[in-house]
Amino acid sequence: MKAKKIFMFFVLFVAMTFVYSCTTGQYMTMSRNENAEVLGTINAEFSISGSFRYRNVINTQAYIHLLAEAQKAYQGNIDVRDISWAIGGGDSANNNHQYNATGKVIRK
Hints:
Strand order of the largest sheet: 1-3-4-2
Oligomer: single chain
Radius of gyration: 18 Å
Helix content: 25-40%
CATH architecture: 2-Layer Sandwich
């Protein structure tokens, strides 16, 4: 009976790890009511240390890096929406993880 409880705990732990893992994410999706001109898409890569791999940190870093790339390519009052990111490679020795982000550049 004790082995069964340990097995069930292990299965639950693995399932929760997959649910809350930071392998992909969506951020700042455009609403239907948002009236903005889409200028194009932009891509960016960035790294995050493993100790700071919380979803809100990854979302913020994706937005910052995409906006910086968008400002290099587009002029005027722009912003980034429909951000999606995925984990790329990583440096497990230094606990750094590479992310790739994509977003739509809009004119406000």
